[in-house]
Each structure stands twice: as structure tokens, then as C-alpha cells.
Design brief:
alpha+beta; two-stranded antiparallel ribbon; 2 helices; 4 strands; globular; binds zinc ion; RNR-like; Haloacid dehalogenase; TRASH_dom; oxidoreductase activity
């Protein structure tokens, strides 16, 4: 299990919407907007203590 560094939710790597290699580590994302937000400012997300989805994030319904 990996953690989406943008929204801090757990992501199963095989099911991640996106993955990014940054500074030798691979990060997995629950959604494309999370990946885009991370790429726009990776250091902010790696250092930020709070969890929040970026604008445009749409949660998947549990039954999908
Ligand atoms: Zn996310």
C-alpha cells in the first residue's frame, strides 16, 4: 500500500490512477488531478502536514 502525497489517502499501486518518479522515489496517486497538483509543486506536498484534495478531484463511488 502506498500513500497519495497530495490527499494522503492510501492507494494500491496496481490500481493507482497515476504514478510519478520524483527524487528516486515512486509516488502513486488516486486521481489525475492529484498527480497534476503534485507535479506543480512536489516539495509543498511532501512537506505539508494536512490532507486535502485539489480542485477538480472527484471521489469514486464505493460501488464502482
Ligand atoms: Zn489523491
Amino acid at each position: 500500500m502506498a500513500m497519495d502525497p497530495v490527499c494522503r489517502m492510501n492507494v494500491v499501486p496496481e490500481r493507482a490512477a497515476a504514478e510519478v518518479r520524483y527524487q528516486g522515489e515512486v509516488f502513486y496517486f488516486c486521481s489525475i488531478p492529484c498527480k497534476d497538483a503534485f507535479l506543480a509543486n512536489p516539495r509543498m506536498y511532501l512537506e505539508r502536514p494536512i490532507a486535502e484534495h485539489p480542485p477538480g478531484y472527484t471521489p469514486r463511488k464505493p460501488n464502482e
